[in-house]
């Protein structure tokens, strides 16, 4: 058993001695640090000690010595030795080998520590920051510069992770860079903003043999700010050059090439391309020279030659250049030699700027013209005591002395100036306010006294001492005389104004009276119409009595009644003439031009605060009206709208075609037929219901006393209704007012298609003509019917136009239509028109108490025969005879 243990111990020793050189070679090649090596060897020795435990009899004591030394080495004490005998035995050789290894490691550790200390000293001395991280990104080293930069200490940094020390790096680009270095084992250089300091850093991270990384970084915020400032400065420079219309040009005289930047190419009008070198000796390169004005070309060539031949370091020249559109522009060319050939010192690079100075040239010319013009003005410069220092051409013309004659003389004495106040007060005002203006009385060289409007301005030095007085002078002699004359005239004008005001008030009173008379005339027209109907009944009845009575005295009474009726008709005729119903001149009108012309008139009349608009559809039919009366009515409505919009607003003139199908259902009470509705709408204050109910009544007004007659809307309504139309007003307080005028549409066929003549009636054996008599007044209708029947006519009676049209629709045979003009619902003219639609060529006779121009116009056009009430039965029969032709009354 003992022999076996001895053999095992020897084998273990031999194995350990065999492994020891391999371990040493690994140390030399891999560069394992001393502590790791000691741990390795110590662990191996401990393993061998355990394995050799059973052989304690052979190697027990040497093993204990080795284990004790290994424990000290593992603790970091490389000065420890095995203490084994140094003989040629296996244990002696093993002890000596381990002692030599420990000594070598101790020497290596000392050298490594010295190197680390030197490296640390170098890292601490640099002006950049440096730290080292292990594979888990924990700090293993931080130099002082980095600690000062972040305000940290080594105790708070070493051994802690990057994220623990700098929480802001979590998820940052910096952390991503570090992980890429660890993963790829490659060095990375980059610029980034520190997540902690929020400053720009240049960072270089490189991997370390121990699996960690080293980081070298420096603060480059100042450089970044400088770069940003440089970029901003360059941008401002470019902006300034663009604003100043400055371009850059380069010229290489030895190479014979030229280059322009984009702005320079624009200034030259594109004669050369931008940002490209071109040969100056070729046609493309000579285009610049060819564009220069022939009179300026030699000066430009001389400036370039002076640079190329080293006779000048810089040159400036201005010349005219033809643009592609044929116009001439003034260009300022500045050049400077920026590089010379080393061997010959000849200029090899010339750079310069181009400026378009056309506007500057124009401004200079205008300035010179202005200076010349100012010199023509009358002004002088003098010392505070009055000594003349400058005398303009205008002063020479004004006073008669030349500049050579007055310079150095005292202005007050020369011109014998009479001041409007003490001279000392004027000088005090100049010192206090720096300026004074007023009229002076002075004398010209020829002895003429003149009044001069003077404005004096004081110029002072930096200490406030008066230096000079600049005086502008204007001869106002004629003006002041005219003003004096004007004051005299004004005094006389006051008397004239009072007289004119009195005359105007009288005229206004007359106008008011005339307007009242106009309203009275309208009232008279209505009365005349009703009275004519009464006279028609009386005259008709009297005529029947005269015809039928056998007693001569009764017939005499009837004739007396007829004479009285004729005198009544004469009276109504004068009433109608007074009411001016006969003055309407009806004509077909195209609406759009009428409203458009009125828009222009109202736009100027109502003022700029009111926006006047029109809205007329393109295919609107014509209407029938008196144009002058229509325009007057619309102007009156515009004036009313202006009064309702004192602060301004909008006024709209619109028109549309309207067809009324049933009588009595229209707000204006229109009869069935075609109309054109003209609406006048404003955005003014509007009217309440009480005001709206009386708006069209004569003499009703909401204006202050003396500012309105109350006849405006009443007159408009009378005109529209007299024209065969109607008027309606809609309004609400705060929502404006709309006035609608309905006027009849013009008959499209009237001018082209004359009414056919009625067929002739056979005089022998022919039946009496069949007359359709239409009148809403029963007495008039019955008396006329009796007259016609007595004359042999067959009469059908109708109380309205609608009833008459119904009879025609039922097929009643009619040879002549006799109708009243003014009837409820459908009036006589519309009845005749509708009858002609059903019975073309049907003869018609219109009876009216108005006898207006419109009816006369229709009659002249052949639409009907016209008779004015009161009409005698015999007169009506004669018209029927003329209408049917050939028939004679019984």
The residue fraction in helices comes out at 40-55%
| Biggest sheet layout | 6 strands, antiparallel
Strand order of the largest sheet: 8-7-6-11-10-9
User: What is the terminal separation in angstroms?
Assistant: 187 Å
The rough form would be described as: elongated
CA radius of gyration: 62 Å
Low-confidence stretches: 1-9, 11-15, 24-32, 50-57, 749-765, 853-857
How much of the sequence lies in strands comes to 15-25%
Chain-averaged pLDDT: 78
Count of DSSP helices? 27
Structural class: alpha+beta
**Record field, number of beta strands:** 28
Structural summary, described in words:
The protein has 890 residues and is α+β, with helices and mostly antiparallel strands. 48% of the residues lie in helices and 21% in strands. The protein contains 27 helices and 28 strands. The protein has a six-stranded antiparallel sheet with strand order 8-7-6-11-10-9, with helices on both faces. Helix 1 runs parallel beside helix 4.
């Amino acid at each position: 058993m003992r022999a076996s243990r001895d053999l095992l111990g020897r084998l273990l020793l031999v194995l350990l001695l065999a492994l020891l050189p391999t371990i040493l070679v690994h140390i030399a090649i891999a560069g394992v640090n001393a502590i790791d090596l000691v741990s390795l060897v110590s662990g191996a020795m401990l393993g061998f000690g355990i394995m050799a435990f059973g052989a304690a009899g052979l190697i027990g004591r040497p093993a204990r010595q080795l284990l004790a030394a290994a424990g000290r080495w593992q603790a970091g004490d490389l000065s420890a030795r095995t203490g084994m005998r140094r003989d040629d035995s296996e244990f002696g050789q093993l002890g000596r080998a381990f002692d030599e290894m420990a000594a070598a490691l101790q020497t290596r550790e000392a050298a490594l520590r010295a190197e680390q200390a030197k490296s640390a000293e170098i890292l601490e001395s640099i002006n950049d920051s440096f730290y080292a991280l292990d594979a888990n990104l924990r700090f293993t080293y931080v130099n002082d510069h980095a600690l000062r930069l972040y305000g940290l200490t080594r105790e708070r940094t070493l051994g802690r992770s990057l994220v623990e020390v700098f929480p802001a790096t979590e998820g940052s680009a910096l952390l991503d860079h570090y992980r890429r270095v660890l993963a790829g084992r490659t060095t990375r250089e980059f610029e980034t903003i520190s997540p902690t300091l929020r400053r720009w850093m240049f960072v270089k991270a490189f991997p370390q043999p121990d699996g960690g990384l080293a980081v070298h970084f420096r603060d480059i915020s100042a450089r970044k700010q400088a770069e940003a400032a440089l970029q901003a400065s360059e941008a401002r420079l470019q902006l300034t050059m663009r604003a100043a219309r400055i371009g850059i040009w380069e010229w290489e005289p030895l190479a014979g090439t030229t280059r322009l930047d984009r702005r320079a190419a624009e200034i030259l009008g594109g004669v050369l391309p931008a940002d490209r070198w071109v040969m100056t000796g070729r046609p493309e390169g000579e285009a610049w020279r060819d564009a220069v004005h022939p009179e300026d070309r030699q000066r430009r060539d001389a400036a370039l030659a002076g640079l190329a031949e080293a006779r000048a370091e810089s040159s400036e020249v201005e010349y005219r250049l033809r643009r592609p559109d044929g116009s001439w522009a003034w260009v300022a060319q500045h050049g400077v030699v920026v590089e010379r050939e080393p061997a010959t010192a000849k200029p090899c690079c010339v750079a310069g700027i181009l400026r378009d100075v056309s506007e500057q040239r124009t401004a200079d010319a205008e300035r010179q013209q202005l200076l010349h013009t100012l010199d023509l003005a009358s002004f002088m410069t003098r010392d505070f005591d009055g000594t003349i220092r400058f005398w303009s051409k205008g002063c020479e013309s004004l006073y008669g002395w030349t500049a050579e004659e007055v310079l150095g003389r005292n202005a007050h004495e020369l011109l014998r100036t009479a001041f409007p106040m003490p001279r000392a007060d004027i000088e005090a005002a100049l010192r206090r306010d720096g300026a004074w203006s007023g009229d002076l009385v002075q004398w010209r060289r020829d002895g003429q006294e003149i009044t001069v409007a003077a404005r004096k301005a004081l110029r002072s030095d930096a200490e406030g001492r008066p230096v000079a007085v600049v005086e502008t002078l204007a001869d106002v002699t004629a003006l002041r005389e005219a003003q004096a004359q004007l004051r005299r005239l004004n005094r006389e004008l006051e008397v004239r104004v009072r007289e004119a005001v009195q005359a105007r008030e009288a005229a206004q009173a007359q106008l008011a009276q005339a307007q009242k008379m106009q309203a009275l005339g309208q009232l008279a027209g209505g009365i005349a119409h009703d009275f004519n109907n009464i006279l028609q009944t009386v005259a008709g009845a009297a005529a029947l009595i005269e015809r039928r009575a056998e007693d001569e005295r009764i017939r005499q009474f009837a004739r007396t009644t007829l004479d009285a009726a004729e005198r009544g008709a004469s009276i109504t005729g004068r009433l109608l003439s007074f009411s001016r119903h006969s003055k309407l001149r009806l004509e077909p009108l195209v609406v759009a031009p009428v409203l458009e012309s009125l828009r222009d008139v109202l736009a100027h009349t109502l003022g700029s605060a009111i926006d006047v608009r029109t809205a007329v559809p393109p295919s609107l039919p014509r209407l029938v009206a008196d144009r002058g009366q229509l325009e007057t009515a619309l102007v009156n409505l515009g004036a009313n709208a202006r009064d309702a919009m004192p602060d301004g607003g909008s006024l709209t003139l619109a028109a549309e075609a309207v067809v009324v199908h049933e009588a009595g259902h229209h707000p204006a009470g229109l009869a069935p037929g075609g109309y054109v509705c003209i609406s006048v709408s404003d955005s003014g204050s509007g009217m309440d219901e009480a005001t709206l109910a009386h708006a069209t009544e004569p003499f009703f007004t909401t204006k202050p006393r003396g500012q309105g007659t109350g006849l405006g809307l009443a007159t408009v309504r009378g005109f529209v209704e007299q024209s065969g139309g109607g008027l309606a007003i809609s309004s609400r307080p705060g929502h404006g007012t709309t006035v609608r005028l309905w006027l009849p549409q013009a008959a499209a066929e009237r001018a082209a298609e004359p009414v056919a003549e009625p067929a002739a009636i056979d005089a022998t054996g022919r039946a009496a003509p069949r007359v359709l008599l239409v009148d809403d007044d029963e007495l008039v209708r019955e008396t006329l019917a009796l007259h016609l029947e007595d004359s042999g006519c067959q009469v059908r009676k109708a109380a309205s136009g609608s009833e008459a049209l119904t009879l025609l629709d039922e097929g009643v045979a009619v040879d002549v239509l006799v109708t009243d003009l003014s009837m409820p619902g459908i009036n006589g003219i519309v009845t005749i028109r509708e009858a002609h639609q059903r019975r073309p060529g049907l003869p018609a006779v219109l009876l009216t108490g108005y006898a207006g121009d419109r009816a006369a116009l229709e009659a002249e056009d052949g639409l009907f025969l016209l008779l004015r009430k009161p009409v005698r039965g015999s007169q009506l029969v004669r018209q029927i005879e003329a209408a049917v032709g050939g028939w004679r009354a019984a």
